[in-house]
Amino acid sequence: MWNIARVMRVLSGKSILLIVAGGIAAYKSLELVRRLKDRGALVRCVLTEAGARFVTPLSLAALSGEKVHQDLFSLTDEVEMGHIRLAREADLVVVAPATADLMARMQAGMANDLASAILLATRAPILLAPSMNTAMWEHAATQANLKSLRQRGCKTVGPQDGDLACGEVGAGRLAELSDILAAIDDGFSAGPLKGLRALVTSGPTHEPIDPVRFIANRSSGKQGHAIAAALAGAGAKVTLVSGPVSIPDPAGMCVVHVETAEQMLAACQKSLPADIAVCAAAVADWKVKTPAGQKLKKAKGAAVPSLELATNPDILATLSGLKKERPRLVVGFAAETQNISAHAKAKLEAKGADWILANDVSEGSGTFGGDSNQVHLITRSGIETWPRMSKSHVAQELAERVARAFKKGKKA
Ligand code: CTP
């Protein structure tokens, strides 16, 4: 039995932005608004153009007691409550029903209507309740979009199996409202890291040689981004400081984009205090001492330029060595090509980290840029070798370890 008193407490004062996309299940969003209001939430609704074919803005406005937003280019709306404000003021964004089309646009990072612009601009957690025809649901494109949205931290509920409005029987029915409400409740209730702040570095850094050339490395940011998403999923308030990567920002956290190691360190320092720091970035060890202000030209007969390098700050060592504001748990990575555990143990000591995740990045390991990773967790109490698993699985495993460590009040 759904415990109204408990839910009232959980949702009271919470702002939920409900995006209603165009599917036959859109009519169920009306009941969802009513149930969320009953539980004390402030509900603002965004109706897509297709959604408005199934439910009217008037019904949503009457039930939510709020103006319904439909148009990205409405001058009045932008003055009263612009799309960025709608995105920013939500504690949780719920998309119900989430259609194949809207999920595809989300996955691609499109912003061609109000709903997709909000989904791109929000830093709030996102809950998707998909609903569509079975063939559309099972299509490889929809499944790939879903996988990628989940990897970015979006939560999903449903769909269920059953009779569909199109006459087919199979997966694609919108989840039961009680399940959607339970997932919303979960989104607000305490994850094991609730109340803790986490800082994660990810991706490579680019160190300029001149305005068009730079020194970089092969890091994709996949592991660091997955860790940020897993920590956020466990309830931590996450700041992700990312070097230049081609993967999308995970949802539900603050993402700071940087280029150089020095910028990364400054962004990390600015995001303190934090309880947990995970340095997953492949920070360039060296920068060009004096980058050229203009593009270096290869004048005929001129000597090949030689680059004078200077040492970059070590972010992991700097965070570990802080006297004031040292995060309680500092985790580093060790990218090694040989003698992995010995080198990683030495790094744990040299950098003063609490834990090191050591991985094999030798040629043929498939770690850089790949989707899987094989790591050893090195703590002061020993070494554990984890089996090869997907980077998101490594991230989940790490988040669980972190949660256990904080529960015990210890670091390992
Ligand atoms: N690291 C960092 N700042 C740097 C260099 C590395 O924060 N300037 C962090 C990485 O994020 C990682 C750990 O230190 O958590 C180890 O990085 P790695 O590249 O394996 O080692 P290096 O310190 O660069 O040493 P080496 O290249 O000699 O193995």
Any key phrases for this structure?
Rossmann fold, alpha/beta, globular, disordered N terminus, 5-stranded parallel sheet, single chain, 2 domains, binds cytidine-5'-triphosphate
Main pleated-sheet profile = 8 strands, mixed
Give the tally of β-strands: 21
Structural class given helices, strands, pairing? alpha/beta
Our Rg estimate from Cα atoms comes to: 24 Å
Number of helical segments with 4 or more residues: 15
Present the secondary structure layout.
Elements: H1 4-11, E1 15-20, H2 28-38, E2 42-47, H3 57-64, H4 75-81, H5 83-89, E3 92-98, H6 100-108, H7 114-121, E4 126-130, H8 134-138, H9 140-151, E5 155-156, E6 160-163, E7 169-173, H10 177-188, E8 197-202, E9 207-208, E10 214-215, H11 222-233, E11 237-242, E12 254-257, H12 261-271, E13 276-279, E14 286-288, E15 309-311, H13 315-320, E16 329-336, H14 340-351, E17 355-360, E18 372-373, E19 375-379, E20 382-385, E21 389-390, H15 391-408
Helix pairs in contact: 2-3, 5-7, 6-9, 11-15
The structure holds cytidine-5'-triphosphate (CTP).
Cytidine-5'-triphosphate binds at residues 201, 261, 279, 281-283, 285, 312, 314-316, 332-335, 347.
Outline of this structure?
The chain has 412 residues and is of the alpha/beta class. The chain has helices at 4-11, 28-38, 57-64, 75-81, 83-89, 100-108, 114-121, 134-138, 140-151, 177-188, 222-233, 261-271, 315-320, 340-351, 391-408; strands spanning 15-20, 42-47, 92-98, 126-130, 155-156, 160-163, 169-173, 197-202, 207-208, 214-215, 237-242, 254-257, 276-279, 286-288, 309-311, 329-336, 355-360, 372-373, 375-379, 382-385, 389-390. Helix content is 35%, strand content 22%.
